[in-house]
């Protein structure tokens, strides 16, 4: 039933032929001018590791050996509790997993030959803490003689090696456990910050969902769980100094993260080499604080869009209006308590302070702010007053402050860069694609890239606001955007193809520490979480780990398709309800489902 | 006062807000008993006793009746009516004040089953201690209910990706929760042939994805019987096979060659060759087997998206064309060789996709498609094509892609697609693809939200006479980007939106569209479905139903 698709595809192809020729020239030029990433492997193996390692070789003729029932993973040098738990975890996974590749690997298995007896893990610096910029490199070798080794600078790199090892194992015809032999992997990430942002403010997610998500992140070698904990809709975290916020702001008693829950999440993530960056979004997005502190929140409880035909009349970017009043002393008292509590609950060196989408209409409804404006004050001054108080406090806790780009780039309400020194500030971009990344790094800031038109996983799902007559149109709707502000849906290829350092000089590119895919949860909860995130987050995970190009410098999305089909299949087997990217037919007929042969 | 039943019944009368608890031994009995109701009664007894629904915003200020309800009695006036098109699904339900028993009366067993579902949704966990921890139901309530349309369905494509039997059963159960009554099973397609047919087992042997991805005749009977127990018809659809290479043109070719027209609408090429007599022998074997497995009077013959280039790939076809034959004649040959067989030998009404009559490229004349035994299913051009179908005198099933295709708006899935590799905003004048307003690669973008589905008037622009020919509608899930991992979230609650519109309409008593009012009710119903094990996706943040009206676009 896809006639129209065919017509469009046919049209697009004619355009593409011309573009491809042009692209080839551009690529050739770029190859001449810049050195290739060294050691990149062009070939696709019958069994692969996702994200694709920087370098992997598998000796010809391809062979696999059985894994001995007494197989063990051993650490050589000293003990790290995280390494010990990781070795136990991966030993258990290896024997429990029943992964059978969709296409049976064409490799030699020597009957009666050696079996894999052990995997030895050596780590040179067992005490390196998990933090921004930590060395995550590793080397993995599986010899046909039945011996395997992982060498890494840190425990965190060793965990990546263990994950790669686990992905090189599969079940043979009789269910026997096999592992690729004659394999050598040398691997390290392109970007140090490879994250997923989850919004638990619009929708509460049970702790088990968060743990499963973090576990899957680790399997994808992602290392930052950006936890957008609170928003206007709910305040689900219990803070010892500010218990009223959750008491009055959470959806319900059973929808709160206790101190113990947070500990469990942070510890679980640490044991998987995943950092947890907490975000308490403010001063916008704080309607949920008003239950506890009505005096600190402007415009709370008001209808969000007084005039449906005038976007400028809005009090918030979406239903649930309310933002902190910077003129109110209570605001600072509460925020200070929050910073103290959050920094003691989360060991992570980055603290995300939000500051996105400060909405003029909200502050303008507040009598105290109106009075201030009559005296000549501006909304930007108001925001600056707030940031001046918050930023140094966070820094005093020995944290780097992350803000959304709005704090600097918003056209209506913003602060001067002097109040957010680049040395202690990172900006996270979400608008205007590569343009804003460029603005941020040119201003001297480190950047985390979450451009909505590539990395927002919630986009393209229509609108969620009610009483919306736009859908009541009996004409065909091919030309409408369906109500999603950031539509269309971002396919895995779209995510995969994004070059987060696009258009930057080499110097500027150094300030891009990485990226995060983001799931805002107006239309997602526990029932659909996995499918919204996976396997599209996996697409980013590879692009930020080893890039989205092959050894020749060409984008490798075509080659990645079958590998991602396999990885998705494996993730589903591991209990993740990742969505399929194609009919199963495609995986068994390589190339036949491509747009261009 | 609030009575949460989805789809909303045609009429409810409940003068005073009184609830009666159910007794722990609450039971259901049909008088007289009828075998068709046995499974439904057993299911709903168990279900109603166990379920403890807490509405998102529970009703406040109500009184509890003194007399608990211990029995629900069903009376059916004609217990012999078989499940099929046009069956009477009306029922009345009453819980008399201060009575220990409630009643459902229906013309047929199938109406009684709808009433059972309604009763189950009336029950919720209020009352607490005073109700002895049992659910309570409105007391002194009278409901009179019947559907606007007789055909309310879901199409599931099990060929692009395979769904295990339990997922199909689970979907049929969820359909019954929503009073949907047709499971249109798009069993096979170019990509796979997962059904094992006794006379032609080789089709599944060569055409299924794997031995574990096949529906045996036992599976099919289980599905058909399970569906019947819930009053759900199963209409099978077969797209013709690739297992006999000699009867299929253009099989296993790349679908979109650069220098010539595409051979199929999407990857995986192959069509039956109407000039090969063996094609008809196989087709008749397939159809005979199908009719033995599926008792429903409707049989779906497919016939969408016939591709001329694919046929022309075959030398025999090319000779036929060069000797003055036409593509339309080829299709007519096929229709004439299979349709009468289905009608006369198998006693079936044949459903085809609209393409067979409307083209645009290949079509047959109305004489080859007698109206009495043909139903056409529309999927293009919204209300326009429905009008063309009924104006030609055919009965119509509406599945307009722009409203009812649940797979739309999820981007493209073909590989090696460089269109996503654009780092900059798309320039003025260029067609949008990745930027807002662009399709993102989905031919039928954007995503159809529940409001979009809900608001569709499938009779739009028809005269009264024409409207009588519209049997109903089906939402459709084509499975290029779906499988068991994501099935529930793709179908629900959007199929529920169609279910209400097709059951009692999308307008309130005043004639105004009621999508605003439906929002909170659907939030609650989705919440209940999730508790019933259906992983339906959320419509809104929980904040919205907790703050009624505050998440609207206009106040």
Automatic annotation (TrEMBL), chain A:
Its EC number is 3.2.1.52. Residues 49-168 form the Beta-hexosaminidase eukaryotic type N-terminal domain. It comes from the Eukaryota. Keywords: Glycoprotein, Glycosidase, Hydrolase, Signal. Residues 1-42 form the signal peptide. One of its GO terms (cellular component) is membrane. Residues 191-547 form the Glycoside hydrolase family 20 catalytic domain. InterPro entries: Beta_hexosaminidase_sua/sub (IPR025705), GH (IPR017853), Glyco_hydro_20_cat (IPR015883), Hex-like_dom2 (IPR029018), HEX_eukaryotic_N (IPR029019). GO terms for biological process: carbohydrate metabolic process; glycosaminoglycan metabolic process. It catalyses: Hydrolysis of terminal non-reducing N-acetyl-D-hexosamine residues in N-acetyl-beta-D-hexosaminides. GO terms for molecular function: beta-N-acetylhexosaminidase activity. Belongs to the glycosyl hydrolase 20 family. This is Beta-hexosaminidase. The lineage of its organism: Eukaryota, Viridiplantae, Streptophyta, Embryophyta, Tracheophyta.
From TrEMBL, chain B:
Its EC number is 3.2.1.52. It comes from the Eukaryota. Residues 149-505 form the Glycoside hydrolase family 20 catalytic domain. It catalyses: Hydrolysis of terminal non-reducing N-acetyl-D-hexosamine residues in N-acetyl-beta-D-hexosaminides. Keywords: Glycoprotein, Glycosidase, Hydrolase, Signal. One of its GO terms (biological process) is carbohydrate metabolic process. InterPro entries: Beta_hexosaminidase_sua/sub, GH, Glyco_hydro_20_cat, Hex-like_dom2, HEX_eukaryotic_N. It holds the Pfam family Glycohydro_20b2. Residues 5-122 form the Beta-hexosaminidase eukaryotic type N-terminal domain. SUPFAM superfamilies: (Trans)glycosidases (SSF51445), beta-N-acetylhexosaminidase-like domain (SSF55545). The keyword Glycoprotein applies. The active site is at residue 305. One of its GO terms (cellular component) is membrane. GO terms for molecular function: beta-N-acetylhexosaminidase activity. Belongs to the glycosyl hydrolase 20 family. This is Beta-hexosaminidase.
């Amino acid at each position: 039933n896809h006639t129209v698709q065919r017509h469009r595809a046919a049209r697009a192809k004619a355009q593409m032929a011309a573009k491809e020729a042009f692209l080839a020239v551009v690529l050739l030029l770029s190859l001449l001018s810049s050195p290739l990433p060294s050691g990149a492997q062009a070939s696709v193996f019958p069994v692969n590791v996702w994200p694709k390692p920087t370098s992997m070789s598998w000796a010809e003729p391809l062979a696999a050996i059985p894994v001995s029932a007494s197989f063990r993973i051993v650490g050589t040098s000293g003990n790290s509790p995280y390494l010990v738990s990781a070795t136990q975890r991966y030993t258990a996974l290896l024997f429990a997993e029943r992964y059978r590749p969709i296409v049976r690997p064409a490799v030699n298995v020597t009957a009666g030959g050696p079996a894999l007896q052990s995997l030895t893990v050596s780590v040179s610096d067992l005490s390196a803490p998990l933090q921004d910029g930590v060395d995550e490199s590793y080397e993995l070798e599986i010899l046909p003689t039945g011996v395997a080794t992982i060498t890494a600078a840190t425990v965190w790199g060793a965990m990546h090696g263990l994950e790669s090892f686990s992905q090189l194992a599969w079940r043979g015809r009789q269910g026997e456990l096999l592992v690729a032999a004659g394999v050598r992997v040398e691997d390290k990430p392109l970007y140090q910050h490879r994250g997923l942002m989850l919004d638990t403010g619009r929708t509460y997610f049970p702790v088990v969902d968060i743990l499963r998500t973090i576990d899957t992140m680790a399997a994808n070698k992602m290392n930052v769980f950006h936890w957008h904990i609170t928003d206007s809709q709910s305040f689900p975290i219990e803070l010892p100094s500010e218990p009223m916020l959750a008491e009055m702001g959470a959806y319900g008693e059973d929808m709160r993260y206790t101190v113990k829950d947070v500990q469990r999440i942070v510890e679980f993530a640490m044991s998987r080499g995943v950092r947890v960056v907490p975000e308490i979004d403010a001063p916008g997005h704080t309607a949920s604080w008003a239950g506890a502190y009505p005096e600190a929140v402007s415009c709370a409880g008001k209808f969000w869009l007084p005039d449906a035909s005038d976007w400028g009349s809005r009090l918030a970017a979406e239903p649930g209006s309310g933002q902190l009043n910077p003129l109110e002393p209570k605001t600072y008292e509460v925020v200070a308590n929050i910073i103290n509590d959050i920094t003691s609950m989360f060991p992570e060196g980055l603290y995300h302070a939000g500051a996105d989408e400060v909405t003029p209409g909200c502050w303008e409804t507040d009598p105290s702010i109106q009075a201030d404006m009559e005296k000549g004050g501006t909304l930007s001054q108001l925001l600056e007053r707030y940031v001046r108080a918050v930023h140094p406090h966070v820094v005093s806790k020995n944290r780097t402050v992350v803000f959304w780009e709005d704090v600097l780039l918003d056209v209506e309400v913003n602060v001067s860069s002097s109040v957010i020194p680049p040395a202690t500030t990172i900006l996270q971009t979400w608008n205007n694609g590569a343009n804003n990344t460029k603005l941020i790094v040119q201003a001297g800031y480190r950047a985390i890239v979450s451009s909505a038109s590539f990395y927002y996983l919630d986009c393209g799902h229509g609108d969620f606001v009610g009483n919306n007559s736009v859908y009541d149109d009996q004409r065909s709707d091919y030309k409408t955007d369906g109500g999603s502000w950031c539509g269309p849906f971002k396919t895995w290829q779209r995510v995969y193809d994004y070059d987060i350092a696009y258009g930057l000089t080499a110097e500027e590119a150094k300030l891009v520490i990485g990226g995060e895919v983001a799931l805002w949860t107006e239309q997602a909860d526990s029932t659909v979480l996995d499918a919204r995130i996976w396997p599209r987050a996996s697409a980013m995970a590879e692009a930020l780990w080893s890039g989205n190009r092959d050894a020749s410098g060409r984008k490798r999305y075509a080659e990645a398709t079958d590998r991602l089909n396999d990885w998705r299949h494996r993730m589903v087997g591991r209990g993740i309800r990742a969505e399929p990217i194609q009919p199963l037919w495609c995986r068994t007929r390589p190339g036949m489902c491509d747009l261009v042969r | 006062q609030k009575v949460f039943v989805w789809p909303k019944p045609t009429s409810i009368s409940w003068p005073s807000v009184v609830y009666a608890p159910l007794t722990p031994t609450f039971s259901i009995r049909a008088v007289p008993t009828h075998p068709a109701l046995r499974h439904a009664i057993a299911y709903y007894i168990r279900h109603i006793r166990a379920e403890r629904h807490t509405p998102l915003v529970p009703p406040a200020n109500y009184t509890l009746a003194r007399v608990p309800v211990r029995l629900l009695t069903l009376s059916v006036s004609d217990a012999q009516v078989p499940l099929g098109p046009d069956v009477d699904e009306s029922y009345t339900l009453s819980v008399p004040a201060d009575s220990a028993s409630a009643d459902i009366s229906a013309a047929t067993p199938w109406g009684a089953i709808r009433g059972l579902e309604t009763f189950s949704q009336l029950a919720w966990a209020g009352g607490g201690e005073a109700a002895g921890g049992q659910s309570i139901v409105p007391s002194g309530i009278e409901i009179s209910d019947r559907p606007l349309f007789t055909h309310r369905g879901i199409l599931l494509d099990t060929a692009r990706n395979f769904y295990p039997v339990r997922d199909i059963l689970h979907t049929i159960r969820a359909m019954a929760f929503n009073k949907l009554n047709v499971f249109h099973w798009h069993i096979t397609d170019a990509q796979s042939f997962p059904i094992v047919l006794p006379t032609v087992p080789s089709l599944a042997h060569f055409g299924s994805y794997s031995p574990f991805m096949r529906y045996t005749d036992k599976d099919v009977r289980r599905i058909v019987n399970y569906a019947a127990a819930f009053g759900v018809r199963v209409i099978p659809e077969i797209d013709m096979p690739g297992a006999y290479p000699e009867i299929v043109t253009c099989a296993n070719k790349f679908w979109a060659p650069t220098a010539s027209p595409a051979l199929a609408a999407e990857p995986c090429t192959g069509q039956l060759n109407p000039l090969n007599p063996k094609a008809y022998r196989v087709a008749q074997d397939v159809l005979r087997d199908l009719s033995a497995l599926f008792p429903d009077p409707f049989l779906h013959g497919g016939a969408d998206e016939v591709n001329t280039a694919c046929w022309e790939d075959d030398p025999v076809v090319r000779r036929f064309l060069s000797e003055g034959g036409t593509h339309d004649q080829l299709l007519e040959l096929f229709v004439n060789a299979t349709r009468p067989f289905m009608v006369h030998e198998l006693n079936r009404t044949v459903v085809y996709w609209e393409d067979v009559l409307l083209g645009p490229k290949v079509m047959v004349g109305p004489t080859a498609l007698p109206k009495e035994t043909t139903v056409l299913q529309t999927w293009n051009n919204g209300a326009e094509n429905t009008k063309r179908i009924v104006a030609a005198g055919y009965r119509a099933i509406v599945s307009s892609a722009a409203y009812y295709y649940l797979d739309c708006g999820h981007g493209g899935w073909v590989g090696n697609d460089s269109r996503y590799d654009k780092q900059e905003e798309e320039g003025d004048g260029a067609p949008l693809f990745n930027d807002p307003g662009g399709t993102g690669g989905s031919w039928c973008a954007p995503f159809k939200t529940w409001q979009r589905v809900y608001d569709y008037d499938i009779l739009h622009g028809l005269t009264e006479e024409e409207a009588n020919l519209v049997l109903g509608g089906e939402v459709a899930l084509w499975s290029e980007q779906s499988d068991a991992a994501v099935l529930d979230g793709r179908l629900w609650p959007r199929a529920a939106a169609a279910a209400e519109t097709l059951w009692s309409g999308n307008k309130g008593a005043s004639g105004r569209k009621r999508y605003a009012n439906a929002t909170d009710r659907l939030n609650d119903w989705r919440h209940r479905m999730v508790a019933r094990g259906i992983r339906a996706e959320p419509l809104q943040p929980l904040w919205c139903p907790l703050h009624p009206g505050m998440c609207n676009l206009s106040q």
